[in-house]
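tool_call predict_complex ligand=coenzyme A
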Amino acid sequence: MAIDLTLRIGGEGGEGVISAGDFLMQAASLAGMEVVTFKSFPAEIKGGYALSQLRVSDQHILSQGDGFNILIAFNGEAYELNKSLLTPGTVMIYDTGSEADFEPEEIPGVIMYPVPMGEIAKRQLKAYITKNMVALGAAAELFNIPVDTLKESIRQKFTRKGDKVVQLNYQALEAGAEHVRNNLKKQESFEFPKPREKKDVLIIEGNQAIALGAAMAGCKYYGAYPITPATTVGNYLAELILGLGGFVYQAEDEISALGTCLGASFAGAKVLTATSGPGISLMTELIGLGIMAEIPLVIANIQRGGPSTGMPTKHDQGDLYQACFGTHGDAPKIVLAPANVEENLYLTIDAFNLAEKYQTPVFLLSDASLALRVEAIKRPDMSKVKHEHRMTRNGKADEKFLRYMSTESGISPTGIPGMPGHAYAATGLEHAENSGPRTNPDTRNLMTEKRWRKFDNIEDEWKPVEREGDEQAEVGVISWGLTQSIAKEAVQRLRAKGLKVAALYPKMLWPLPVKAIKAFVDSVNQVLIPEANFQGQFAEIIKAEVPIHDKLVKLNVYRGEPFIPREIEEKIEEIYPK
Ligand code: COA
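tool_result ok
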């Protein structure tokens, strides 16, 4: 029988919850298992509730799952916050003894394993910080987690802290395991999947995948201002491109960051910036310059809960309107949204290619949960990556160079400073075909129409949607971003139960792939659009372009956490004809 096990660790920020989850994840991935993680922590550096969850299986998995089978509670808060999910059949390993701040009540059907993790760490090992490893040692003993791979990932992470720290953590692992052997009796049958032959996979985090995608696409310049949860994109990218002639620049704010990006792209480089909603707000004026001057640029928005400083470390899909419409004037853009870590990588490459081809800023909408999610993905094959380059005039120096020539496709030849005969003004002012500033009505019409014409056929040129399920279905689900991977699991569960359900997974949200969405809406009786925002922003955008009113059902969460598949599954069952 397939193994599908979810283990959640909860505790206080600063107690090593995140590290413990990362070690488990790496151990499972190194042992060839399928893994999806979910992490959530407070905006404070220390204190507050931190959660790290690992879903592990011997089958392919799509999302973080519905809840957990096993809870490791480091403190009373973790117990209180997860108590309602401790249903019969679940297991809790919890801190007890002199260092514990709580004593759980008995819950019928819930198996409890008390482990004095804090006490062992403090008194026996003289290092309270190793409490997380005592807990992992106990879990490893109980659930057959491969200790060798656990030790290997501990060694990899803590080597920089010195061999003493590595050895101390090994001792903590063993102390936790020993406590279980001497004091507890296994009362359930949860087991990690057996280690399998190692696959050639990359264990990679969401933001890391964006950085890798950018490097693979040929990104040579990154200009940004640090902001949670986007900062690590730049950290990872620096490791990849600094040694390859690339530049990474931390500017004094987001406005300046984007200014440097536009300059670098104008000079011919492939360019990335990463920020979050508040950073996009500051960049908005210069994004308009990028559109007007037709400068290729990729902007990764790692969305978080807004408005204002909002909930900096929490999941949200509330920046879609901002991405599509957040610039003054008639401002065409491209907005892409990846559904999982692997898509973070490949859609980033697509974003660079689209930016080059259409000479425009391209948004990549990720989010705080996807930023931290870890997946083991198939190792990418660099030789299969296509590189698009902006169209230049290619040498015919005797022809008149018109930077903003009104071509049939709307895409005009550009030049790189220093190319003979390619001088032009990259201006925020409206301009004529030769780039000189002009405001007469004919020029304004010609250039506005040219800028929009570029995207007339983008849906056919770049197939931006996937579809699954029955050709004619009772319920069709349209979703975007991380919600897509969760909706996919819900849809597949219901199809396995025999329900006529279909799903559309747009990867490009703007320009809206109207043809594909209209065809999908026509093929189903009701359309459910789940989104992690209050307004149902994508649903409203679709409503403006596709006749969907009498079929549309919205489902929205805005609590700072992603959907779980069961919520979408239950909503589909609720609206499904009885
Ligand atoms: N032995 C030695 N060191 C250990 C250890 C062990 N057994 N377990 C954990 N640690 C170290 C970790 O290595 C880490 O130190 P490092 O940063 O030098 O690597 C530290 O203890 C914290 O542990 P970690 O597991 O990474 O995190 P945590 O679960 O304790 O939670 C966070 C801390 C992540 C919540 C918090 O630090 C944080 O970053 N909050 C978000 C801040 C933010 O972005 N705010 C928004 C501003 S707008």
